[in-house]
Amino acid sequence: MEHLFSYGTLQSKEIQMQVFNKLLTGTPDQLTGYKLKDLKIEEEFGMTDYFVATASENSSDKIEGIVFKISSKDLAKADLFESNAYKRVQITLKSGLVAWIYIES
């Protein structure tokens, strides 16, 4: 099993059904030393506003989110869902769990 930290879209039940064909269960956690930054992504009907995690110079910055336990197959589905504006890396959360996260590429 893999851990995936979500701070945005993948927390949505509708998106989870679309991407994984099921609802995920997770627990709240934090990523310290990162902040959220606005990101514009071109989609089918034009530009859409999102946000992306980016490393911060301030170690007290943090991002609240949910850590999900998922299969490697589901992780591959998440990779397909996320835009190429993001890259997947492993990080250590405040809880001590090592998880995948999508950050600015």
Structure notes:
The protein is globular. It has helices spanning 13-20, 72-81, and strands spanning 2-6, 26-32, 34-43, 46-55, 62-70, 86-92, 98-104. The protein has one domain: Gamma-glutamyl cyclotransferase-like (Hypothetical upf0131 protein ytfp, Roll). 23% of the residues are buried. It starts with a strand and ends with a strand. 17% of the residues lie in helices and 52% in strands. The protein has 105 residues and is α+β, with helices and mostly antiparallel strands. The strands form three sheets. It has a three-stranded antiparallel sheet with strand order 1-5-2. A two-stranded antiparallel ribbon has the order 3-4.
List strands and helices in order, with pairings:
Blueprint lengths: L1 E5 L6 H8 L5 E7 L1 E10 L2 E10 L6 E9 L1 H10 L4 E7 L5 E7 L1
Antiparallel strand pairs: 1-5, 2-5, 3-4, 6-7
What tags apply to this protein structure?
three-stranded antiparallel beta sheet, alpha+beta, 105 residues, globular, 7 strands, two-stranded antiparallel ribbon, Hypothetical upf0131 protein ytfp, 17% helix
Task: Summarize the structure in short.
This is Gamma-glutamylcyclotransferase. It contains 2 helices and 7 strands, in the order E-H-E-E-E-E-H-E-E.
Question: Which descriptor suits the 3D outline?
Answer: globular
CATH architectural group: Roll
User: By helix and strand content, what is the structural category?
Assistant: alpha+beta
CA-to-CA gap between the ends?
Answer: 25 Å
Instruction: From the alpha carbons, calculate the radius of gyration and give it in angstroms.
Output: 13 Å
Write the CATH homologous superfamily: Gamma-glutamyl cyclotransferase-like
Number of strands: 7
